[in-house]
Write a structure and sequence with these properties.
- By secondary structure, the protein is α+β, with helices and mostly antiparallel strands.
- It folds into 2 domains: about 30 residues, no CATH class; about 190 residues, no CATH class.
- Helix content is about 30%, strand content about 15%.
- It has 5 helices and 9 strands; from the N terminus they run αββαβαββαββαββ.
- Strands 3-7-6 form a 3-stranded antiparallel beta sheet. A two-stranded antiparallel ribbon has the order 1-2.
- Strand 1 and strand 2 form a beta hairpin.
- The termini are far apart.
Length: about 240
């Protein structure tokens, strides 16, 4: 068994955490500072940002607005919300001293939720609690079943259509696509990462689609759905 000091050294060596004298963990090296990176890193980040924005366009997450249409909304009192790029390396955990490290750049544009002023919106979204997960694992183990899992690409973009008007400013550094206009803003159509109710709007869509597919929502756990198919047997 590793000692506490050995564990700390193991994590620090791999740039996973930075442990201060107080023993608190601090994330380090997880997010790039674009302005301070070298040309090669910036090029990789630009490609990741472009790939991310293409997903925004693919799912029609926002609608561009500019000119008189934008000015009319601003005169009506709508306040644009800022956005920012979050640039990371998905291969950071593979970084080792003395070993050539090839980053896999990942970028995500998120809304600055602290700038939202909309009042009265519900933000809660159920998630599967530990008891639900343990129950599934116990059942699968007793029945000798193999479990499967999946991830939803750009999950929030699949959420319910937003029922309020939210205008986004482009992120600092712009959007690396042809024809980019720095004076253009964007009206949200779907939930956006960072907005206060994005999780709830995704949950509402997930629940609606799950029930439509024939699943039954658990009365004990709102995020647990089951399917029971029973065949009648003739005696």
């Amino acid at each position: 068994m590793k000692t506490k000091e050995q564990t700390h050294a193991f994590l620090a060596e791999r740039s996973m955490v930075d442990l201060s004298k107080s023993g608190k963990k601090k994330a380090t090296g997880k997010q790039f500072n674009y302005e301070k990176e070298d040309e090669t890193t910036r090029k990789g980040i630009d490609e990741a940002r472009r790939a991310e924005w293409l997903k925004w366009e693919k799912f029609m997450a926002v609608r561009p607005i500019e000119g008189e249409g934008l000015q009319q909304l601003l005169r009506e009192g709508y306040t644009p919300i800022g956005t920012q790029w979050i640039d990371t390396d998905k291969h950071l955990h593979l970084k080792r001293p003395g070993v050539t490290h090839k980053p896999e750049y990942k970028s995500r544009s998120v809304a600055l939720g602290n700038q939202e002023t909309t009042l009265g919106i519900r933000t809660g979204s159920p998630t599967a609690d530990l008891d639900s997960v343990n129950m599934i694992l116990s059942w699968a183990s007793s029945e000798k079943l193999r479990l499967m899992a999946l991830d939803i690409t750009n999950a929030y973009f699949h959420g319910e259509t937003m029922d309020r008007l939210m205008i986004l400013k482009p992120p600092r550094g712009g959007i690396p696509i042809a024809g980019y206009n720095p004076d253009r803003m964007y009206v949200c159509r779907t939930p956006i990462y960072g907005s206060r109710d994005s999780g709830r709007l995704f949950w509402k869509r997930l629940r609606k689609e799950s029930i439509a597919a024939g699943l039954t929502a658990s009365k004990l756990s709102s995020a647990l759905f089951t399917s029971q198919e029973m065949e009648s047997q003739k005696l």
